[in-house]
Amino acid sequence: MTKKTLLIIPCILLVLLVISPLSHGQLFKWVDEQGNIHYGDSPPENANLKRITGKVSSFSSVSVEPFIFDPDNITKRKKSTSVIMYSTSWCGYCKKAVLHFKKKGIPFTEYDIEKDEKAAREYKKLNGRGVPVILIGSQRMNGFSAASFDRIYYGKS
């Protein structure tokens, strides 16, 4: 490499470091007509919005959110028995979830959103964006992590 190239690389890195904090997006919280809480950077036009401020370091591929308020599930932290998963046949995380459920003896219902029209409509009502979407009692999990699932299902903190 030439001396000029060696000087340009650190300058480019410095510019990128200075610009990166300026390129952050906005994060909003809103509640839909069914009372579901949503977070995102592109809310629907008619939503009652609350802008989320503060530092957001990163997003995980797994998110958990309440989709129906059930005070018994929150206060008693009892084991939830209702597990519903919206999936596709090609989804690797869906397959991992199924294996986990079977290994632990967890009863579940799986709906393939590409093969079942009714499941596709329900998935759309849930504002699904990616698979799997797993409903565990009053909790919703987007994506799959065995540890996160077990924490919700067995009520461990």
**Roughly what is the average pLDDT, rounded to an integer?**
75
Envelope shape:
extended
What Rg do the Cα atoms give? Answer: 21 Å
Q: So what's the CATH class of the largest domain?
A: Alpha Beta
Strand pairing plus helix content: what structural class? alpha+beta
- Main beta sheet, described? 5 strands, mixed
CATH architecture of the largest domain: 3-Layer(aba) Sandwich
Walk me through this protein's architecture.
The protein is 34% helix and 22% strand. By secondary structure, it is α+β, with helices and mostly antiparallel strands. It folds into 2 domains: 57 residues, no CATH class; 83 residues, Glutaredoxin. The strands form 2 sheets. A 5-stranded mixed β-sheet has the order 4-8-7-5-6, with helices on both faces. A hairpin with a 5-residue loop joins strand 1 and strand 2. It is extended, with a radius of gyration of 21 Å. The termini are far apart.
